Amino acid sequence: METLHIVSLLVAAVLFFWVVGAYNRIVEMRNAIGRAYQQVHAHLERRHALVGDMVTALRPVLHNEHGTLDAVLAASAQAQAAAAAVRPRPGAAEPVAQLLLAEQMLAGSLVRLRALIDLNREPVADAQVGPLADELASIDDKMVFARQLFNAAVQGYNEAVHQFPTRMIAPLFRFAPAGRL
Questions:
Q1: Residue 142 lies in a domain
Q2: Positive or negative CA dihedral for 124, 102, 104, 159?
Q3: 20 to 30 A from 57, CA-CA: which of 20, 47, 102, 132?
Q4: Does residue 94 sit within a domain?
């Protein structure tokens, strides 16, 4: 009887330490998502500032295209709001999906803006938009890398949440799959 009691305590201790270790591993991975999102968020903020500066510089030159310029600003504002909603919980799938959708809408608006810039090269050149466009392209390149890091962190976390045996404790601690950008 005493041996059975000792074995039961050992099994309970091993199980307890495994649960603590698995919990800490998943929390560490969730925190990695947050750190990766901070990089994405910094680039998003800079990108939105550049979009605003570019639209301000283009307004006097493209005075017939206020609708397009306003659409770019509206898409940028929507993307900023979505990015702010993700910041407190970067591992939550729904806000990340909304950010992805808002960023796609902004990208479409920027394509139309770049087409306008190409159609009106001479007046736009006088507006000093070239450096802003170059910096915006540079930020876009940095965003690709930051998103890759974010998505890698999300993938590692999602795999940990779905793998056996941690899959058994994930619902107990409300670890849900994270969304990708």
A1: yes
A2: positive
A3: 102
A4: yes
In which domain, by residue range, is 113 found?
27-169
Q: Hunting for tokens 């998943």 — which residue is that?
A: 26
Instruction: Kindly report the CATH number assigned to the domain that includes residue 128.
Output: 1.20.1440.20
Average pLDDT over the chain, rounded to an integer:
92
Q: How many domains does the chain have?
A: 1
Give the pLDDT confidence of 70-112 residue by residue, as tens digits. 999 999 999 999 999 999 999 899 999 999 999 999 999 999 9
Q: Which residue has the tokens 């540079």?
A: 138
pLDDT-derived band at 127 (thresholds 50, 70, 90) equals low
Q: Is residue 112 included in any domain, yes or no?
A: yes
The span from the CA of 68 to the CA of 14, in Å, is 63
User: Residue 95: which of 40, 140, 58 has the closest Cα?
Assistant: 40
Indicate the pTM of the whole model. Answer: 0.88
CA-wise closest residue to 53 among 125, 129, 141, 139: 129
Helices (H) and strands (E) in the chain, counts: 6, 0
Query: In this structure, is residue 20 part of a structural domain?
Result: no
26, 178 contact by CB (below 8 A): no
CB 52 within 8 A of CB 79: no
